[in-house]
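Friendly challenge for the regulars: who can give me the structure tokens for this chain first? No prize, just bragging rights.
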Amino acid sequence: MNLVNGGSMSNESNDILFVNFNQDCTSLAVGTKTGYRLYTINSLEKLQETFSCEREIEDICIVERLFSSSLIAIVSIANPRKLRVYHFKKGTEICNYCYSNTVLSVRLNRNRLVVCLEERIDIHNISDMKVIHTIRDIPSNPKGLCALSVDNEKSYLAYPGSSQVGEVQIFDTINLRPITMIPAHDSPLSAIAFDWHGSKLATASEKGTVIRVFSVPQGKRLFEFRRGIKRFVEQIF
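First reply, four minutes later:
Bragging rights claimed.
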């Protein structure tokens, strides 16, 4: 969660700018005004700090960790168009890339690294970090809304297919081709998330009254949940 643009969390003492889980929710990454920190989640009661980087790069607005590995991707407020990829245990920079516009979000799995700009998405090969495909002229996506499945074989990417209504474009990042467009909602999207296997996609719109779940890649609606039935939503993913 990027707390710089549109975030609601307030923590003046720690100056938190970004908070996010890794792909299997075993680690938590926190970007701050002084650097970033990584935590291991051993229980719901306590977080164990496993790494802290202070003052080397400040104002970290994006920090994404690849599962529990030593690979992290970071973006700072001072250089919002620059993505840095590090091996944090060795303290070495693997690579860096500069983009034409602000990096709004970064997604990782074991095959791909995805960088989302407002009107473009770059797909990198995780093994050598080279750009292997660019999705150009996407509908305006100022929040960088996108989701990348963690399944090694499917590796689907979801992003808004329209800025006016809640359409979801599903893209195959292995074979580098669009799969399907899902008409999920009447109003623009506010959240999208894959399940662990990449076979289901949950969506919510800015209207905020309905969560829908679709099969992937078929795009068939499987479930619909409205306000007042939260107990069922928690059982999906």
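The first strand starts at residue 16 and ends at 21. The radius of gyration is 17 Å. Your move, everyone else.
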